[in-house]
């Protein structure tokens, strides 16, 4: 056969992967589709002169529930569809018997993707894509030197200073450190949206199916990487600008990022819920930049975005850049020499285009864990319910789906002793396999705390004794005083003017004098309560504290594009994007005694939340939560909140008091026995022959009293392990005494 040229590849070896026997019953697609894909696969091939077996497991979580695709028709109108795409041919795995190995492979038409064997990385792709077994494939090593283009992430070159944004998180987040199960250990879920510009559409011959395949392969690889951080990345939507670009894409990466963030916040987020969005562009950025993202902004409605240049024919090189920019959204920074990387190169290495990352460094893991302690990361814990997952349930994909009690991976991977890995059911005679209220495969007692209160605006949650799962997170009733009277709780938060100033301007910022807020009565660009189109509506005098936010001090650096306005000791900000409300005092902020801001009005707390005396309506020892439902106080077990939740310590109490009681009985028996011995008999003593004086005394002879045997009975008891059963005993008078 003639040698086929592969773009960007100088040398490759021809291999013929042979599929081994099926591991599980096949799954058939919808009627009319002929391809069949098994849950697990094994392929045998020659790699570097030796036989290697590639183990693959289907990645059923590639697409999120509600996945959609958007394109534009000939009139420029957006068309959104929910295609019934089954992500059945995307797999992850490893080389069997290799300690350091992973794989991200598509089997749609032949094998295409990546796998590693030790420190060596390989790429494989079909030379003539078909569905036939043992077809020709090109296998080539990953050689960074051949692909080196001196391309980098542009984050260090832009104006945003990571440290300032990191410190700009409200100070209240220091209260969020939970005694609960660490967020790092919990499963996290990212709903990921991708936008491809018009240049991408043209680059791939306007072939939407070809674009979809490339995108799915890249997301499959990103998913594989983030699973190492207990984070599942699922594609929830894709938009292709097939008619024209919806924003100005500039060689200036910073400007393009700002434009995309504005479009995403004002357009995309309003019609499609997601956690993070990235723009993939065929355009080139200035200098060596191939990617850019905001830092520590995951879940943010305005800045949870990144942009990536499609800089390589090798889709995994581009996927590595996508994973890198997402890492910045998670609060990760570029690796330094002080960071420990478990592989040749890690995701947050500054050089992007020619290295294929396979893991995260020690620094990235620390940064991510720190980010997870912030309340801004809440969107990561919205794991879809089994009923929301549209894919066919697959036992062994570590995602609990309809009909499954648990899913601990394949039998080889599973470490959960309560879960049957073959059926994804709880093992016989066990009650549970997962959840914070599940311990040693049994439900924890009702009343045991499973989620402690994070701060004064949070409520603890307790097990109900009927489920292994901890109840949903509940918060203190809205309007509950917090931060020493500086604010009132709202949906688990304690919004204050101080925190909002710190978030906007960084550490050292203070709330401006009340005289600054009086400017809100003017209705000018630097003082108003709300906007209607382009008209600024002034505040009423009573509402002045609920309009524009005025601060003093802090940094003059901003993450948002707009105009900084200062006068005297008053400082405010007018964003360029009118949809951004970051410069307006937040809802729920205290504006007076027993008053809060709601929609730029200062109203009574009761009018805002209607929660007065709610707790007095609760039975037993309960309080109202943010939804005006009754929740048990600590120490009182659900559901009635009347029984003490300390009952779960009863066995401990018995274990301590019972041995003490037994010892007390034994001591009492011995004491009585000794007392009885002393009175067993009274012996007649003779008169003393010694005269003590002229008078002589005679004593009466003493009579011997016979004591009948006394019986002491201790009932046979079930004693703790450290004590023996005390049997029936008798004490008899010894006649010789």
From TrEMBL:
Q: Which Gene3D superfamilies match?
A: Collagenase (Catalytic Domain), Disintegrin domain
Region of interest (Disordered), residue spans: 680-705
> What are the TM regions of this chain, as residue ranges?
647-671
Name its co-factor(s).
Answer: Zn(2+)
Q: Which residues form the Disintegrin domain?
A: 392-478
Disulfide bonds, which pairs? 299-379, 339-363, 341-346, 450-470, 614-624, 632-641
Q: Where is the Peptidase M12B domain?
A: 188-384
Q: Where is the active site?
A: 325
Q: Which InterPro entries match?
A: ADAM_Cys-rich (IPR006586), Disintegrin_CS (IPR018358), Disintegrin_dom (IPR001762), Disintegrin_dom_sf (IPR036436), EGF (IPR000742), MetalloPept_cat_dom_sf (IPR024079), Peptidase_M12B (IPR001590), Peptidase_M12B_N (IPR002870)
GO CC annotation terms, alphabetical: plasma membrane
Positions that bind Zn(2+): 324, 328, 334
Report keywords, A-Z: Disulfide bond, EGF-like domain, Hydrolase, Membrane, Metal-binding, Transmembrane, Transmembrane helix, Zinc
Positions of the EGF-like domain: 610-642
Q: Which GO terms describe its biological process?
A: proteolysis
Q: Taking the first listed entry, what is the main subcellular location of this protein, grouped into a coarse class?
A: membrane
Please state what the protein is called. Answer: Disintegrin domain-containing protein
Q: Which organism is this protein's natural source?
A: Balaenoptera physalus
What lineage does UniProt assign to this protein's organism? Eukaryota, Metazoa, Chordata, Craniata, Vertebrata
């Amino acid at each position: 056969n003639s040698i086929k040229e592969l773009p960007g590849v100088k040398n490759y070896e021809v291999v013929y992967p042979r599929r081994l026997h099926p591991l599980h019953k096949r799954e058939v697609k919808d009627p009319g589709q002929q391809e069949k894909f098994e849950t697990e696969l094994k392929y045998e091939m020659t790699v570097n002169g030796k036989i290697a077996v590639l183990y693959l497991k289907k990645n059923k979580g590639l697409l999120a529930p509600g996945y959609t695709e958007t394109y534009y028709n000939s009139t420029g109108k957006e068309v959104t569809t929910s295609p019934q795409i089954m992500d059945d041919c995307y797999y992850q795995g490893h080389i069997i018997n290799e300690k350091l190995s992973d794989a991200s492979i598509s089997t749609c038409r032949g094998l295409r993707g990546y796998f590693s064997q030790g420190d060596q990385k390989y790429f494989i792709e079909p030379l003539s894509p078909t569905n036939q077994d043992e077809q020709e494939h090109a296998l080539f090593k990953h050689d960074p030197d051949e692909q080196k283009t001196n391309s980098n992430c542009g984050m260090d070159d832009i104006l945003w200073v990571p440290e300032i944004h990191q410190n700009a998180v409200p100070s209240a987040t220091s209260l969020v450190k939970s005694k609960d199960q660490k967020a790092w250990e919990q499963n996290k879920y990212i709903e990921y949206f991708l936008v491809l510009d018009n240049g991408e559409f043209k680059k791939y011959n306007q072939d939407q199916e070809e674009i979809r395949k490339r995108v799915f392969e890249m997301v499959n690889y990103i998913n594989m990487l983030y699973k190492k951080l207990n984070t599942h990345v699922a594609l929830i939507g894709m938009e292709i600008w097939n008619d024209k670009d919806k924003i100005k894409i500039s060689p200036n990466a910073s400007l393009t990022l700002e434009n995309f963030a504005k479009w995403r916040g004002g357009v995309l987020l309003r019609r499609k819920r997601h956690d993070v969005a990235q723009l993939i562009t065929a355009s080139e950025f200035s200098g060596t930049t191939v990617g850019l993202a905001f830092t520590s902004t995951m879940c943010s409605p305005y800045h949870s975005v990144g942009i990536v240049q499609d800089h390589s024919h090798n889709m995994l090189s581009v996927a590595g850049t996508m994973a890198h920019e997402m890492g910045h959204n998670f609060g990760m920074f570029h690796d330094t020499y002080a960071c420990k990387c478990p592989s040749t190169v890690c995701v947050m290495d500054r050089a992007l285009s020619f290295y294929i990352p396979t893991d995260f460094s020690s620094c990235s893991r620390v940064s991510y864990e720190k980010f997870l302690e912030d309340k801004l990361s809440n969107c990561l814990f919205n794991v879809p319910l089994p009923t929301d997952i549209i894919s066919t349930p697959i036992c062994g994909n570590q995602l609990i789906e309809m009909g499954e009690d648990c899913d601990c991976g394949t039998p080889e991977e599973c470490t959960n002793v309560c879960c049957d890995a073959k059926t994804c059911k709880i093992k016989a005679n066990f009650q549970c396999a997962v959840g914070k209220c599940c311990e040693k495969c049994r439900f924890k007692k009702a009343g045991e705390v499973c989620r402690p209160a994070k701060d004064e605006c949070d409520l603890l949650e307790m097990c109900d004794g009927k489920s292994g799962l901890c109840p949903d997170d509940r918060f203190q009733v809205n309007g509950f005083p917090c931060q020493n009277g500086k604010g009132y709780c709202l949906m688990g938060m304690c919004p204050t003017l101080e925190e909002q100033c710190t978030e906007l301007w960084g550490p050292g910022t203070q709330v401006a004098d009340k005289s600054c807020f009086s400017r809100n009565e003017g209705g000018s660009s630097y003082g108003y309560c709300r906007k209607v189109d382009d008209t600024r509506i002034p505040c009423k005098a009573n509402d002045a504290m609920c309009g524009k936010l005025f601060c003093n001090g802090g940094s003059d650096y901003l993450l948002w594009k707009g105009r900084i306005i200062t006068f005297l000791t008053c400082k405010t900000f007018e964003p360029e994007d009118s949809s951004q409300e970051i410069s307006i005092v937040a809802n729920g902020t205290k504006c007076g005694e027993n008053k809060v801001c709601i929609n730029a009005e200062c109203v009574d707390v009761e009018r805002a939340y209607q929660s007065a005396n709610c707790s007095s309506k609760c039975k037993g020892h309960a309080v109202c939560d943010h939804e005006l439902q009754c929740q048990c106080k600590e120490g009182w077990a659900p559901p009635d909140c009347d029984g003490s939740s300390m009952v779960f310590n009863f066995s401990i109490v018995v274990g301590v008091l019972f041995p003490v009681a037994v010892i007390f009985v034994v001591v009492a028996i011995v004491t009585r026995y000794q007392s009885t011995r002393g009175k067993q008999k009274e012996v007649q003593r003779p008169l003393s022959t010694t005269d003590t004086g002229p008078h002589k005394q005679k004593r009466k002879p003493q009579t011997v009293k016979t004591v009948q045997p006394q019986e002491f009975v201790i009932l046979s008891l079930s004693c703790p392990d450290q004590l023996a059963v005390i049997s029936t005993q008798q004490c008899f008078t010894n006649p010789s005494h």
